[in-house]
Amino acid sequence: MSKGRSGNERRFVEEVTRLLVPWGVPPAAARLYGYLLLCPRPVSLDQISEELGISKSSASVAAKLLESYTLARRHREPGTKRALYAVTEDYESMIRQQNRLLEAFAEQLNAGVRIAASKGVSARLGEMADFYLTLRSAMEDAMRRWKRSRA
Amino acid sequence: MSKGRSGNERRFVEEVTRLLVPWGVPPAAARLYGYLLLCPRPVSLDQISEELGISKSSASVAAKLLESYTLARRHREPGTKRALYAVTEDYESMIRQQNRLLEAFAEQLNAGVRIAASKGVSARLGEMADFYLTLRSAMEDAMRRWKRSRA
DNA sequence: TGACATATTCGGCATATTCCGAATATAATG
DNA sequence: CATTATATTCGGAATATGCCGAATATGTCA
Prior knowledge:
Two copies of one chain form a homodimer.
Chain A: H1 7-20, H2 27-37, E1 43-44, H3 45-52, H4 56-68, E2 72-76, E3 83-87, H5 93-115, H6 119-150
Antiparallel strand pairs in A: 1-3, 2-3
Chain A binds a DNA duplex through residues 26-28, 44-46, 54-58, 60-61, 64, 79-83.
């Protein structure tokens, strides 16, 4: 992606940012993800810094964060120390993280069943736990099916 | 729920908080939700304030926020101005919100397909959009089935 | 090994978020 | 309508978050 990014590309990046931030992704990392999604090839931190108008250090921190989320991957440029970053195909990552939260929440609700001060509360918490576990399972199934349909 | 809450109840509330905050729920509101989940009956803002150790105004703001999320509902106490709050059964609320984000993200990815600078990028964005829409549909289906199984 | 290129860390600053308590608004009743 | 009870708003303070740029760490090559 060249120096002069089109308005459409800029808009895309800002929209991706707007959607990822509520998922708990810090703004600079979200913008980087949006930008990397549009890059046909891995890009350097210098280029990221320039294209997104952020400091080199912020680019580094954002890239490493995306890497920890497995949303981006580091590539090396042989013969230099330069790091290049590109998106991974692991776009399940965010869904998996949400599933883990769902599961933990369901577990907590089941823990609540055991301490509930009334039958009504107990029933409510149990039902909620059931609901969230059902949703989690449905997502796991869907991801399995998706993987298979792609193989 | 009486003045002297048990350690287990306290722990439950703090655990629910810990799990809801990453979903973007402010700490006080998350704690209130955890507390309300354990209440067999609607409770007043005074009681909330006292039990959670927060100011009356914070309790009010938190309760109204949960209400806007449809996680809690306001009840009136006839003959007084007092507001009582209790959790709703609308625990689908958070899942629906995530689904809307998923859908919007997929739409944005499809918009990206149209401006992509290369075939590779285009294919990638399209596949991601497909994936997220598949997940969203799976969740919608699961919620529909759940509703039916409860009727 | 030293020099250079490059990434990362860290302290500081600006801004955002969270909560408190006083001020203000609103609901209920006689 | 006035009074009282109660909820809500708002300004301010404390704390958290996000980012920058200088300092530091690390990788590559001759």
